[in-house]
């Protein structure tokens, strides 16, 4: 029997919150933490500076995990200002967001670089949360499934079946990020099923069925339950609403 696919509420703080604000948010979120079932996870993807502070707060909590928002594609060396996957692993970090659309756009991260970043993570036991998603113009052209399928192939299909079984995918349509314009649950389900079909065609059903696919793009307390209720939507990667403890707690509760 296949194990139950993980259902994940992931917070992506992006470049937000000062240190006192982090403390206040963690107090609200974790003083009485929502307890999770064995197939549920909460991931906090926080700026590098706050990783250690958050790690200390969640280390005794079942199912709560810590993520970096990025790592460098090389193992080590003369890359001033960068952070390697090995450094993250040595600090007890379990997950790393790779290829967020903001990094693809503003840091011009290419598919080839992202494939390398995925490798650096897996080499040191970090689980990549691999992001994909189309722009509004691609969506309007009707080529979104092809576009996202190509991102998934380019970033991940060099992996063995065993390696890809250990990753998480996040589908985040760029037109829905930070815009308040969420994909409808039907649009999300359609794309998630398309991504799973791409995975199935290459790796087979058993592998594809194990890989959590999160939806991201204006997830909030009021729409989380409907989105997470879709067959192929295994939780969310949440930006703006993850900065508000009340909202994010309701989003975690929507995993149930
Ligand atoms: P949003 O961001 O929830 O603020 O739309 C999601 C993301 O970019 O991860």
Structure commentary:
The protein is of the alpha/beta class. It is built from 12 helices and 8 strands. It has a single domain (17-58, 91-253), classed as TIM Barrel (Alpha-Beta Barrel). Strand 3, helix 3 (85-90) and strand 4 (95-98) form a beta-alpha-beta unit. Helix 5 (111-123) crosses helix 7 (144-156), helix 7 packs across helix 9 and helix 11 (221-228) packs parallel to helix 12. The longest helix has 19 residues, at 185-203. The radius of gyration is 17 Å and the shape is globular. The relative contact order is 0.15. Residues 12, 172, 177-178, 216-219, 237-241 line the site of 2-phosphoglycolic acid (PGA). The site of 2-phosphoglycolic acid has 13 residues, from strand 8.
The largest pleated sheet is described as: 8 strands, parallel, barrel
Helix/strand structural class: alpha/beta
Query: In which range does the helix fraction lie?
Result: 40-55%
Mean pLDDT: 96
Work out the strand percent. Answer: 15-25%
Parts with pLDDT < 50 across at least 5 consecutive residues: none
The sequence of SSEs as H and E is: EHEHEHEHHEHHHEHHEHEH
The name of the CATH topology is: TIM Barrel
Total helices: the number is: 12
* CATH structural class: Alpha Beta
Bound small molecules, by name, code or SMILES, are: 2-phosphoglycolic acid
Count of β-strands: 8
Give a topology summary.
Blueprint: E1 7-12, H1 19-30, E2 40-45, H2 51-58, E3 64-68, H3 85-90, E4 95-98, H4 101-106, H5 111-123, E5 127-132, H6 136-141, H7 144-156, H8 161-164, E6 168-171, H9 185-203, H10 205-208, E7 213-216, H11 221-228, E8 235-238, H12 245-253
Parallel strand pairs: 1-2, 1-8, 2-3, 3-4, 4-5, 5-6, 6-7, 7-8
Helix pairs in contact: 1-12, 5-7, 7-9, 11-12
The chain binds 2-phosphoglycolic acid.
